[in-house]
Amino acid sequence: MATYFLFGTYSAEAVKGISAARTEKANKLIQKYKGKIISIYALLGNKDLVIIATFPGIEQVVKASIAVSKLTGIAFSTSEAIPVKDFDKMAAGI
């Protein structure tokens, strides 16, 4: 399972729908696409939200991101996270 950071930006319409119930629906969608949420944070700055989750592959994270965007109106940009110990191994010898 790979770890992904889904950075969200609220639209004006998405802000109107903020609720614990919507968050729970979004969590269930992520699980539907085989994702496991590690944590979710509200952010201050140029991004409003980050979901940290694991997924078995890129297809599942893409589908989950699209599904959650359709549900919430939140636009997501997604990045795969590489553990530093793995990154150090990849960079060794360069």
Structure explained in plain terms:
The protein has 94 residues and is of the alpha+beta class. The protein has a single domain, classed as ACT domain (Alpha-Beta Plaits, 2-Layer Sandwich), CATH 3.30.70. It is 44% helix and 31% strand. The protein has a four-stranded antiparallel β-sheet with strand order 2-3-1-4, with helices on one face.
Structural class category: alpha+beta
Q: What's the architecture, going by CATH?
A: 2-Layer Sandwich
Question: Rounded to an integer, what's the Rg over CA atoms?
Answer: 14 Å
In DSSP terms (H or I, runs of 4 or more residues), the helix count works out at 4
Task: Chart the SSEs and their pairings.
Elements: E1 2-9, H1 12-16, H2 20-32, E2 36-42, E3 49-55, H3 58-72, E4 75-81, H4 84-91
Antiparallel strand pairs: 1-3, 1-4, 2-3
Helix pairs in contact: 2-3
What are the key terms here?
4 helices; Alpha-Beta Plaits; four-stranded antiparallel sheet; alpha+beta; 94 residues
Give a quick precis of the structure:
About 45% of the residues lie in helices and about 30% in strands. By secondary structure, the protein is an alpha+beta fold. It starts with a strand and ends with a helix.
